[in-house]
Amino acid sequence: MKKGKVIILVAPSGGGKTTLARRLFKDFEELKFSVSATTRPPRKGEVHGKHYYFLSDADFDQKIKDGEFLEWEEFYGGKKYGTLRSEVDKKLKSGYFVVLDIEVKGAVNIKDIYGDESLSLFIQPPSVDVLKQRLLDRGTEDDETLALRLERAKKELTYADQFDRVIINDDLDTAYSQVKEAVIKFMNQN
Ligand code: ADP
Ligand code: 5GP
């Protein structure tokens, strides 16, 4: 079977990656989600092995030592997030397009590894105020993590031009049709 390729959806937290990724999975059966590892606790409804591999600090650190991560980052009060080499490799080998939902620095690292075998889409919220409102409406953050996420978002927005395409996520349907178009074009290359 043909080896798959990597699709990176990158945005500040609350930018809309998860929402857009869900739509992609409904539309394309050749896409598979890369389940990351994290040391943050699960949110209501999140399932180990489906949304994340929820690890203890000790287990995460052991995987760092063993070289099991393609990339990893620490943020939001010491919480770690990382892309597992085994997770991506097994899906690529099976011929799938692997979708990564990761933050900016991790995305830059993944783009460096996979180069032309990857498509990176930067999902940009219309403004920081809109981003704040979306995070408030999502209802997943306390005051402290909301402030940390927004502070980080302001820096991350300056990295947009390092990615293959910038898609403004103002109206969701418009943003999704642009994501879909870019993904179809990428899947049909070669
Ligand atoms: P991320 O995965 O990047 O952290 P989410 O997909 O969870 O972001 O989106 C953050 C919140 O904003 C969610 O509650 C989602 O329903 C909402 N949202 C995403 N895109 C839009 C949009 N275009 N218009 C309005 N709300 C949106
Ligand atoms: P959340 O806590 O909202 O699920 O995720 C916080 C941020 O971590 C999001 O921007 C998400 O995309 C990012 N993230 C999730 N998994 C990974 C990963 O494996 N590596 C990196 N670098 N970031 C990740």
Detailed description of the structure:
The protein has helices spanning 17-27, 57-65, 85-93, 104-114, 128-138, 143-156, 172-187; strands at 6-10, 31-33, 36-38, 52-54, 69-75, 79-84, 97-102, 118-124, 165-168. The protein is an alpha/beta fold and 190 residues long. It has a single domain (6-187), classed as P-loop containing nucleotide triphosphate hydrolases (Rossmann fold, 3-Layer(aba) Sandwich). The strands form two sheets. Strands 2-7-1-8-9 form a five-stranded parallel β-sheet, with helices on both faces. It has a four-stranded mixed β-sheet with strand order 4-3-6-5, with helices on both faces. 33% of the residues are buried. The model has no long low-confidence stretch (mean pLDDT 94). The protein binds adenosine-5'-diphosphate (ADP) and guanosine-5'-monophosphate. The site of adenosine-5'-diphosphate (ADP) has 14 residues, from helix 1, helix 5 and helix 7.
Shape: globular
The CATH topology is Rossmann fold
- Share of helical residues: 40-55%
Give the uncertain stretches in residue-range form. Answer: none
Going by helix content, strand content and strand pairing, the class is: alpha/beta
The CATH C-level class name? Alpha Beta
Average per-residue pLDDT, rounded, comes to 94
Major beta sheet summary:
5 strands, parallel
Number of helices: 7
Can you write the helix and strand succession as a string?
EHEEEHEEHEHEHHEH
What is the fourth-level CATH superfamily?
Answer: P-loop containing nucleotide triphosphate hydrolases
Bound molecules: adenosine-5'-diphosphate, guanosine-5'-monophosphate
**CATH architectural arrangement:** 3-Layer(aba) Sandwich
